[in-house]
User: Fold this.
Amino acid sequence: MITKVEINESIQSKLDKDIKDGLFNKEVRELIAFWIMDISDIGYEEYIKSPLAESFGDHKLKNSRQGERSIHLNESGGRLIYKYYKKKIIVKVIKITAEHDYL
Assistant:
């Protein structure tokens, strides 16, 4: 089943600024594009069971971020936080951070 992945403009702009400021290298953009393409191609239900999800360190978050998930973007702690909406079959990116920061 096809899954749509959304990143709103403010998050995309912040990512562009973070890359410009050196918080992320340019490859992070390609990594995110690959992640989006994979989910879109195979569907979220298949992605979450795949070795790719494991390689991204995809995991559930707790406490104030319950219901959200995170993937690793780089070795310095960069994260992409997202939420899966099953009824809409949509993955919505909530935050991209250069630090291991879930706040």
In short: DSSP finds four helices and five strands in the chain. The CA atoms of residues 82 and 93 lie 4 Å apart. The radius of gyration is 13 Å. The chain has a mean pLDDT of 87.
